[in-house]
Structure of Ribokinase:
Amino acid sequence: MTILNIGSINWDRLYVVDHFPGPGETLAAKSASVGLGGKGLNQSVAIQRAGGRVRHVGAIGEADAAMRAAVEDLGLETSGIVGIPGSLTGSALIVVERGGENQIILDPGANARIPAEHCREQIVRLEAGDRVLLQNETNVLAEGAALARGQGVGVVLAAAPFDAALIWPVLPDIDLLAVNEIEFAQLREAGGELPNHLSILVTYGARGASLITPSETINVPAIRANPVDTTGAGDTTLGCFLARLDAGEPADLALRYAMAAAALQVQAPGAATAIPHESEVLALLDQNAH
């Protein structure tokens, strides 16, 4: 089975500080770095490193050969990534304080200019059992969900950045919605009746995660970690969960794997490059089983 991820691709500019700056305050960073990110790219890396099969569809600046090379270095196929003339690759400014919490400012760049026809060409190649994964960091959310539903494949949405006006209209086309605790509260506050077929994956940070399906709720605790940078933890959870489901694991075991992967990911700086490989996650699970 293939997961077609129509997803964002960013350069992440990461600054580590003692505390978040207040209004008018200027801080000197303890360290600064540039890495790879974007919810879409993070999720594709997580899927691949958890043993899943993923094809990434997205957009970067036409002249950004460095990003294309960096994605290839991650082992991802780049044929679904198009270069957009006159556009910069998306970027994120990430400020991380010493406790590991972060604040993020996004510039969508080319992520907001993915050609709809390019997505259509990729989606029609999918077969029964495949999935389409979407986030709210690109311009093709509604159209991508509708095309995937028309193709008869599963549709997953990571609903961040959360915008009720954009999310609620596409929910009838979504099978699995992934949100964090705050986004889940915003979803409920927005009102309305959720589709009967919808399952929801909710992450609670250090308290674990829940999978709420039409028939049951599965709660899995987090694995203790000493976080350095929580950027990308939710993406790691979702990507690994989907990969393990596609491998045939029951939902509870797939979610336990995802919790272990997230625990490892937050203990290293950065987003995509900090996502652990399958062997590392299995070792941590084995260690916590005793």
